[in-house]
Amino acid sequence: QTQLVESGGGSVQAGGSLRLQCEIWGDDYCKSAMLWYRWIPGKDREFVSRIESDGRTSYADSVKGRFTISQDNAKKTIWLQMNSLRPEDTAKYYCADACDYRGQGTQVTVSS
Questions:
Q1: Chain Cα centroid distance, residue 18
Q2: CA angle, 20 as apex, 19 and 21 as ends, to 5°?
Q3: Could you tell me which residues come within 8 angstroms of residue 82 by beta carbon, excluding any fewer than 6 positions away?
Q4: Torsion sign over Cα 13, 10, 40, 77
Q5: What is the DSSP string of 53-68?
Q6: Environment class of 65 (CB within 10 Å of its CB; exposed 0-12, middle 13-18, buried 19+)
Q7: Which pLDDT band holds residue 1 (cuts at 50, 70, 90)?
Q8: What pLDDT band is residue 47 in, cutting at 50, 70 and 90?
Q9: How sure is the predictor about 11, in pLDDT bands with cuts at 50, 70 and 90?
Q10: How confident is the model over 69-105, as pLDDT tens digits?
């Protein structure tokens, strides 16, 4: 069974950086795109970024210019480089495939 395994979360001060990683274990997943979402308890899930299989990317307005999504198709790994972090970026971050199959998530906490 395919698993998506996120890592790289942690606690940083505002202005800091983190690099999240999503490893795909297995081959049975929707390969047309991979996405990052974030979720804050009590709020709706928020789209963060998407990367198509051909490398095209898109971002939520709230992270544009600060976050960068990338992938290595051969290694089946997706990264989310997060710079200039803000307290409002505090959330649990999930990667998902194009069919919305998600991993367990990794917590990001940004203190002011």
A1: 11
A2: 120
A3: 17, 18, 19, 20, 63, 66, 67, 89, 108
A4: positive
A5: TTS-EEE-TTTTTTEE
A6: exposed
A7: confident
A8: very high
A9: very high
A10: 999 988 899 999 999 999 999 999 999 999 999 999 9
Average pLDDT over the chain reads 95
How far is the C-alpha of 110 from the C-alpha of 27, rounded, in Å?
34
Laid out side by side, the sheet with 46-52 consists of 10-13, 106-111, 91-97, 33-39, 46-52, 57-59
Query: How does strand 106-111 pair with strand 10-13?
Result: parallel
What is d(CA 66, CA 61) in angstroms, rounded to the nearest whole number? Answer: 10
